[in-house]
Amino acid sequence: MLVGTAGVGKSVLVGTKLASLDAEEYLVQNVPFNYYTTSAMLQAVLEKPLEKKAGRNYGPPGNKKLIYFIDDMNLPEVDAYGTVQPHTIIRQHLDYGHWYDRNKLSLKEIRNVQYVSCMNPTAGSFTINPRLQRHFSVLVLSFPGADALASIYGTILTQHLKLGNFPESLQKSSPQLINLALTFHRKIATTFLPTAIKFHYVFNLRDLANIFQGILFSSVECVKSTQDLVKLYLHESSRVYRDKLVEEKDFDLFDKIQTEVVKKIFDGIDEAAEQTRSLNIYCHFANGIGEPKYMPVQSWELLTQTLVEALENHNEVNTVMDLVLFEDAMRHVCHISRILESPRGNALLVGVGGSGKQCLTRLAASISSMDVFQITPWRGYQIADFKMDLASLCLKAGVKGLSTVFLMTDAQVADEKFLVLINDLLASGEIPDLYSDDEVENIINNMRNEVKSQGLVDNRGNCWKFFIDRVRRQLKVTLCFSPVGNKLRVRSRKFPAIVNCTAIDWFHEWPRQALESVSLRFLQNTEGIEPTVKQSISKFMAFVHTSVNQMSQAYLSNEQRYNYTTPKSFLEFIRLYQSLLRRHGKELRSKMERLENGLLKLHSTSAQVDDLKAKLATQEVEVRHKNEDADKLIRVVGIETDKVSREKAIADEEERKVALIMQEVKQKQKDCEDDLAKAEPALTAAQAALNTLNKTNLTELKSFGTPPLAVSNVTAAVMTLIAPGGKVPKDRSWKAAKVSMAKVDSFLDSLVNFDKENIHENCLKAIRPYLQDPEFNPEFVVTKSHAAAGLCSWVINIVKFYEVFCDVEPKRQALSRATSDLTAAQEKLAAIKAKITHLNENLAKLTAKFEKATADKLRCQQEAEATAGVISLANRLVRGLASENVRWAEAVQNLRQQESKLCGDVLLTTAFVSYLGFFTKGYRQSLMDGTWRPYLSQLKVPIPVTPTLDPLRMLTDEADMAAWQNQGLPADRMSVENATIVVTCERWPLVVDPQLQGMKWIKNKYGKNLRVTRIGQKGYLQTIERALEAGDVVLIENLEESVDPVLGPLLGREVIKKGRFIKIGDKECEYNPSFRLLLHTKLANPHYQPELQAQATLINFTVTRDGLEDQLLAAVVSMERPDLEQLKSDLTKQQNGFKITLKTLEDNLLSHLSSASGNFLGDTALVENLETTKQTAAEVEKKVQEARVTEVKINEAREHYRPAAARASLLYFIMNDLSKIHPMYQFSLKAFSIVFQKAVEKAAPDESLKARVTNLIDSITFSVYQYTTRGLFECDKLTYLAQLTFQILLTSGEVSVATLDFLLRSPGQTGVTSPVGFLSHQAWGGIKALSSMEEFCNLDRDIEGSAKSWKKFVESECPEKEKFPQEWKDKTALQRLCMMRVMRPDRMTYAIRDFVEEKLGSKYVAGRTPDFAASFEESGPATPMFFILSPGVDPLKDVENQVTAVSS
Questions:
Q1: 10 Å Cβ neighbour count for 322?
Q2: CA atoms within 13 A on the CB side of 29
């Protein structure tokens, strides 16, 4: 067993020795211990390389010997019984050579194994069980001596300088530098010793190795002279030692030691040492990013330029980081970069959340072209998931050879066992059981070629070692932990590699200069601030931040409350300032614009009235002219209308006549048409007969030599009928007929074109005989000849047609005459109508003229009336808004002043919102009025600010406050401040609300739109995700001191993808900008980590004395005078409603007036609306005044009960402070309220109000006393009773603060000798101190002068019952207590009892156990009883008796 402190090389020595053993004979199993190693885990690791031999024997494979190398032997947890589990199984094996199978419970004999171990006696359990230690040969490995160290590092440095071709002179200075390094290391190690807070102040060989590792980065270009070498060493030693230091005084001491040692060893280096004070930084990117070369940084400007370029490159391909690269930040980037560039360089960055650890690491990794990996915890993320992430990470680094930074923060350590893996990874690069056997085989196979290329044998051992070495080289673990609390100290003890195997870079509180430069950088781009005051604003911002830090320390010291500020808080302060400045600037401009518009409209209204009057006079003259013109036109139109009427009567008569003629014509026309219709069949038949004739059958007819008589008669008849001019031929023989038919075509044409309407009379006479012949029938003739039959039919029908036609002809002639008469009548009528039309046209023209004249007249009248109306409206508007005219003008002036002071007012207001939420009233006032305002007034370039600025007036108004109070917010100042911070802050508000008063208001304020959930509640993440997308308000209630890491991105508002998404666990959720998160805790005094306090705005909603007094006053009055309290409640709500209404009316008035466009004076609705608004506002204002009078009367009546409420409030706060004595003493306001209510009910009634209030006070005091003492340990009851009495007397003014302070503190003068024997020197010192007070002047002289009487008093058995000598017996009870305190402190218990009895009454000091029956009455279904029992006490009998009493 090798025993030695950290960093002396134990593990390296053993590892080297074991690696040198013959692999054919020996098998080595590394067994690193950690805090959580158990015997079961250890047994599994020990059994892994074993195989079963004969029987129950087990051993390593073949004939090999197995060596277990146990590192950090004393690290596992020591249980409550002083046992270390893993040690017991090793001891069992070493004692008996076996252990048991854990499943079968059978023996396993373990052969051919031995143990080699290492332990650090300054870590873990410090020692191990002697019964285990006796089996080991213990070898102490101390820190190497100076000669050994000089030899080791001298060899390293000399070789480096020689191989790097450094100048000869430089190589000669090597021993000096080694001397410097060793001397300085000894000084540091002996000066900076570890303490509980500075637990990491351990300096060993690792630190020396790190320093020389940094020197080995150098090249000839970097180090050209001894001076350069010393500067490089100073830088490296600062990185290794100084970056670990935690306090300013340690820095100063370090710098002092460093300077002294350098001056002592190197002569003439003073100048170089001085230069290093301002800028001595070496980094791999001093000459630009690209080819890494370790060089000194020439100037801050060049470094800034390089890092800004690096940041821009990073932001192009990664999530944008908005960093301000001030000096401290740039230093840290260089420090982190140096660590990442070092072989096996792992970093532990220690700083409160929001210091920039992660951002600066990402930037440094980007400069070194390394990927950054962080785990993403989700709900249920366990160690198995963490192992999977680490396994893939190691594959990426070891197999693919990708340089990766594994970044891990406090918040991501969901389980402390995660750090077991981190510890192993840091210590050895190997995590046991990280990969399955198959995965190990794959890794080894992937490594074979590369192992061969290195000239090594590609066996399993070499391949695995090559993989582990590459993982250690390529994977850089960077831990970002917070120093707050003892968590880091405990972790470093449980997992020493976290401190031992990392380079520590401690992130300190940002210096004032950094705060100023950061704020100034942001302010440069902020509009609305005069450039001259930006410097002053940045100074004030830095001052605010540092002053809150100081006040937080006082707050912790006095109140035991933890309030943190971090750099992130400061950045959020700046962002909120910019946001509020923009918002208020916009609101102010909008208000001014509206008011100015309103004033402009009012001024223009007055100016326009005179113009409107002149316009009205002109319009009235015009109306008169228009009336005259219209009257003339009316007369002319009348004459013309008469003319048209007369002509129209004539036209109507003519029209009637024409109608009669038209009727007659129509009748005659109908008769003609009817007759002609009769002739139509004959004509049709004749035509049909003709159609039967054609050239063929006529030629056939003509060919008859001697036709039958019937045929010849037909031809004769035809010749008769068609005889031209009525000259009937005498020769109508067949021969003559044939001649007439000689030309068949012309004969047919003559028949077709025969004038059937004009047959000559002679022809008709001549044809009659033929027609009368019975054989002259087509039916008969057809038998003789078809052609003849057709001609026969034609003749008959033509004659028939003519006969009918002759009957119709007279009628047609009559029709013709009637038609001509009609035409004449119609022409006459048309002439008359034309005349009428002409007259109508003239009349229409005149009518149009008349209508136009009438319209003009009406228009002029309307215009005149409108102008008169506008004048009336304008006068009404001017009269109605006369008061507003003055008030608005003043308001505009005030707003202009506000605008000029806006940057300062918003600055103070933002400081209030950002930093004061968690402080109580006194601290808030102290910071605001006692610290910040005075600083503002002493700035060289003053910031314009309103001297009497109230932040509440900037952020809210009476209407808002009234609405909040209606929603259940207590009316006291603190509650209103808290509510204002809740609605204004941009970080999520975290409400510390043990009495749930803020919760009541929040739930009423948001109503149904509020989504309420708790961490751990089933489906709570889904509730948040849905609300996040929908833009709802989510309340997470009953928060504990730690928050689920899954919510980290949501709490930090870490939006991704251009602000559209937030990652919750492994899920990207759409982010609605309307989303709002409210956090709530019932814990009275929570200790939230700085990271959470930076992400949220803590708001202390704990009830205040004034606020509780008002609530209890309302409660007592509601019981005593319910009518009065109801009236008060209604009146308060009404008053609040009035305030809201008045504000709304004022806004509407301005809105209507300013939004009116064009000639708004004509807008009657607008003016009437303004009048109505004004009238309503006046009525409301009147009601407000009446309500105020009523309120004063009600308040006067209520004030009689205030002493009772004040006493109750005082009692609650005394009771609430008992938790400072013992954490078990916890009392809720809800329970107290019930006690208070019952006390009021139990108080003795009295007709006199004054006596009744006295009874109330007595009942409340005693009830609360009983309720409280029932739950106190006996030893604490008198303490509580004394405090109760003192506070009651102090409140009533019966005792002075100075006297009470003396009693409690009992200060005494030191170094005084008692002149009297009955008083000790200490007692006399107390008397001297008491004598210096005015009330006790000359007490010391009186005691010396009347020593006998004083001795009798002091030495009496019960001095508290005796009277004080001389006039001192007339002193007040408290003054007598003070004297008793210094003379006989042993009797103070009894004296205090007597004091309480004198002041409060004997019932308070009567020693009796609480009556169970009385206590039982106070309990109920929702108020259980809880017994805290001392040994030997059994309340069962009391309970059984009570049960019997109740059941009977």
A1: 9
A2: 24
Amino acid at 235: H
899-916 core/surface letters (b: 16 or more CB in 10 A; e: else): bebbbbbbbbbbbbbbbb
Instruction: Evaluate if residue 752 carries a pLDDT over 80.
Output: no
What's the average model confidence in pLDDT over 910-917? 93
Q: How far apart are CA 708 and CA 718, in angstroms?
A: 16
In sequence order, the β-bridge partners of residue 783 are: none
Burial code of 953-992, b = ≥16 C-beta within 10 A, e = fewer? Answer: ebbbeebbbbbbbebebbbbebbbbbbbbbebbebbbbbb
SS3 for 988?
strand
Q: Mapped to the 3 state alphabet, what secondary structure does 737-788 carry?
A: HHHHCCCHHHHHHHHHCCCCCCCCHHHHHHHHHHHHCCCCCHHHHCCCCHHH
Q: What is the 3-state secondary structure (H, E, C) of 438-474?
A: HHHHHHHHHHHHHHHHCCCCCCHHHHHHHHHHHHHHH
First to last CA, the chain: 77
CA Rg value for the chain: 59
What is the token pair recorded at 543?
């001052």
Whether the CB-CB separation of 207 and 185 falls below 8 Å is answered with yes
Q: What is the distance of C-alpha 786 from the center of its chain?
A: 118
Cα distance between residue 422 and residue 478, in whole Å? 10
- Number of neighbouring beta carbons within 10 Å of residue 562: 20
| CA distance linking residue 177 with residue 156, whole number of Å | 12
Residues 6 or more apart whose Cβ sits within 8 Å of residue 1200: 1249, 1250, 1253
DSSP state of 142: P
The Cα-based distances of 322 to 306, 1073, 1383 in angstroms read 16, 20, 68
Residues 6+ apart with CB under 8 A from 814: 668
SS3 per residue for 1055-1082:
EECCCCEEEECCEEEECCCCCEEEEEEC
Residue 567 burial (10 A CB sphere; 0-12, 13-18, 19+): buried
pLDDT digits over 1430-1447, tens only?
888 888 888 888 888 887
Q: What is the pLDDT of residue 735?
A: 76
**Buried (b) or exposed (e) across 172-183, using 16+ Cβ within 10 A?**
ebbeebbbbbbb
Longest distance between any two alpha carbons in the chain, whole Å: 208
What is the rounded CA–CA span in Å between residue 471 and residue 452? 18
Beta bridge partner(s), residue 477: 406
**256: which 2 tokens?**
């002092």
For residue 477, give the 3-state DSSP assignment.
strand
- DSSP secondary structure, 960-973, as one string: HHHHHHHTT---SH
Q: What is the DSSP letter of 930?
A: I
Closest CA to 1043 of 1097, 986, 994, 1092: 1092
Three-state secondary-structure class, residue 108: strand
Check: CB of residue 752 under 8 Å from CB of residue 690.
yes
Q: Look at residue 1077 and give its three-state secondary structure.
A: strand
User: 318-322, 588-592, 864-868, 1289-1293: which has the minimum mean pLDDT?
Assistant: 864-868
pLDDT at 723: 80
Of 564, 567, 419, 405, the C-alpha closest to 499 is 419
CA distances from residue 306 to 275, 316, 364 in whole angstroms, order as listed: 22, 16, 12
Tens digits of per-residue pLDDT, 1208-1256?
999 999 998 898 888 888 888 888 888 898 899 888 888 888 899 999 9
| Pair 1253, 1203: CB distance under 8 Å | yes
- Tokens 């080791």 — which residue? 152
Question: In sequence order, which ranges of 1017-1076 are alpha helices (DSSP H)?
Answer: 1020-1030, 1048-1051
- Determine if residue 131 is left, alpha or beta; phi over 0 gives left, psi from -120 to 50 gives alpha, anything else beta: alpha
Distance CA 417, CA 412 (A): 12
Residue 109 buriedness (CB in 10 A; 0-12 / 13-18 / 19+): middle
User: Distance between CA atoms of 1193 and 241, rounded to whole angstroms?
Assistant: 73
